[in-house]
Structure formats: structure tokens, C-alpha cells
Specification:
Structural class: mainly beta
Number of strands: 11
Order of helices and strands: EEEEEEEEEEE
Strand content: over 45%
Shape: globular
Number of helices: 0
Amino acid sequence: QVQFVESGGDLVQPGGSLRLSCAASGLTVALYAIGWFRQAPGKEREGVACVSNYDGSALYDDSVKGRFTATMDKSKNTAYLQMNNLKLEDTGVYYCAVTVIPFRSRVGQPHEYDYWGQGSQVTVSS
């Protein structure tokens, strides 16, 4: 059974940092692309980052480039999203997800991902 345990969400002030974790069981994350998505209240789920299984590179949405870093620790079967210089508009529920699609230049759409974590709330507020 595939399962993800997400953690790291919190309330943080603008300019602050958080690191989200996504621990996987039931599959080997190194064989998949790991995506990170967020969903703000009343808005659609959007992709913000992805560690590609094409060449291991990290791909980012323009809204988070230079501030977020997506990585994978194969030894722990865990993916991470380091978020720095957080902004009010980064608020939302963050989800990790996996897909076999070897993205080369984009994060991908939610329907292209197969398994999802339960979500972790990130609130940026002063």
C-alpha cells in the first residue's frame, strides 16, 4: 500500500522559512517524479516544484523560483521542500505527489500525478 506522511507545515511570518517533508512507504521515490502542489482557499491546486525522474533535476513554477528548493533523500525514501522568503500568497495546503511521467521542463498538472500525500497547512501571516 502506497502511503505518504507529510510534515513541516506551520504558521510563519512573511520572510520566514519552512521545510516540508514527505516520507513515502510502499514505493521507491527514486523511481518517480516527486511533485509539490499547493491549494489556497477557493483556488485550484497548482504545482510549485518537482524533482524529475528524467534526470533528477528540480523544476519550479515561476512564482517560487529562487525561493523554494525541492530535494529527495533516497536513503530515507523522503522528499523535501525547503521554502525561504515566504510570502503571504504562499499560504495554502501543500501536497506531495508522485508520477512516472519524466517531466523535463514543467512541474505537471494534478491529474498527471498518481499518489498523493494528505497535505500540510502552511500559513504565512504577520
